[in-house]
Amino acid sequence: MADVRGGLRAAGYLAAAQVRSDWQYRSAFLLAFAVQAIVALANVVAILIVLELTPSLGGWSRGQVLLAYSLVGLTFGLADALFSALEDTGEMTRTGDMDRVLLRPVGSIAQIVGRNFQLRRIGKLVPPIVAFVWAVPRVDIDWGLWTVGYLMVTVVSATAIFAGLWVVSGAVGFVAVGVRRFSHSITYGGQQASEYPLHLYPRWVRLVYGWVVPLAFVAYLPVIVLTAAPNPLGIPRWLGYCAPLVALALCGAARLAWGAGTRRYQSTGR
Amino acid sequence: MTPRLFIEVARRSFRRSSTYRLATASALFTNTVFGFLRASVLLFLANGGDLRGMSESDLVTFAFLSQGFIAVVGIFNSGPLTLGTAIKSGDVVIDLYRPAGLQQWYLAQWVGDAGFQVLARGVLPLLAGALVYELTWPDLLILPTFALSLVLASLLGFALRFLVALSGFWVFDVRGVDAIVTLISGLFAGLVLPLNLFPPALEDVARGLPFSGMIQLPIEIFLGTRSGLETVWALVFQMGWLAALLAVGFGLLRVATRRLVVQGG
Q1: pTM for this entry
Q2: Are A158 and A71 in contact (CB under 8 A)?
Q3: Residue ranges of the domains in chain A?
Q4: A113-137 burial, b for 16+ CB within 10 Å, e for fewer?
Q5: Nearest C-alpha neighbor of A119 from the set A1, A24, A184
Q6: ipTM of the complex
Q7: A36 touching B, CB under 8 A?
Q8: What number of C-beta contacts closer than 8 Å exist between A and B?
Q9: What are the pLDDT digits (tens) for A81-98?
């Protein structure tokens, strides 16, 4: 436990230093923030065009589809902003950077996350937040303390699930340099796949991106639980409450994979 | 730059690109997976949605074929066009005292790399899609025209990326410019969704911009949805934008190099 606390503290120090240095160039920072926000628009524009062309996306209303999008955008955006630097293990091995990281007496994940922290990436969260604000009055949610709590737990768990995927991609990068893009089919592919209701997809996509990579827990099941959205696959509702467990299991597995990766690490000797 | 030198540089660029086998294979895998994901999303529309005159097989073919274009036209990154980083690091000086024009030098590398990418990442996503879906296959007679349009698309991608790189002479960090151009070109080239599916006003705008020549137009030629005259117009459109963007790039390069001050060391 002391290990985790030390790692968090180190990551916090490094991240704060990054933020301070970014803040020295305020206009450049704000511009970069705006760029991130604009670039993140592409996904929602595509969804809006698709919604325009079809009367119904598998029985889900516009509000339900956009609520699902906002959950994916928010949690993927957070995980991407915080953890996507971990996928560069292959590159860090090649340049010898990884030697320095592994020699220091602080956890390697904490170091990489901390020193690559870029506050501007939070700009990606702007379109999902706007979509969330738009969607919420258009869906039937029975608001209460319980719903707010459920939403918060969902956002944290879903972020942890996506974070776990970045850690796994990093772990794979230790074993084979140059497979970074292979992992993109899981990370970015997962983002893309979970933006639409799962039941619209062919069977293998549902299996791979819903359950093997457990992204059904990120947005699909929460929207069903929160808004009583049509559930033609007949997935039991209680599964919609399992996101924290799934996130824990995935993060545990990711941690083990990362450990196995660092043990197999071979320096390039630079 | 002599044609001989151009060919030699292009050949070596082809060879260099072909040495990164694992990276190419993993990118190819991801391109193909996204082909399947995008095809499924487009097929949601087939269930009572408005397909805007495209058949189901047209839509699916569009998804897989456009995935094959990504590396060839350089939608997501500049590939061998490393001019942006060279400007930031100052290495551009080395580029400038080469006995060959800087634009042609990078163009030769782009052509060699694109040649490799067509073979490595252009065809297989489409073949993988054909295993699962019924695709629209082109008339054999149209293939040479499609090939010409594909070449123009790749050159358009170069001309655009060259401008992005040149912006490094004026802005501190080209990554912002790069990110915006990547978004705009992906959206307006037809990579996110075919332009036919856009709301009509937006479609008209998109069809006037050079990006449509990078994916949408060549694929329409492949699918045979353009008449003879429309096909000629598509090629003229691509050539016009190509000439314009290359000329702007050439002009800006001259302006930039005239004001460039390099600290010795």
Answers
A1: 0.92
A2: yes
A3: 2-264
A4: bbbbbbbbbebbbbbbebbbeebbe
A5: A24
A6: 0.90
A7: yes
A8: 96
A9: 899 888 888 888 888 888
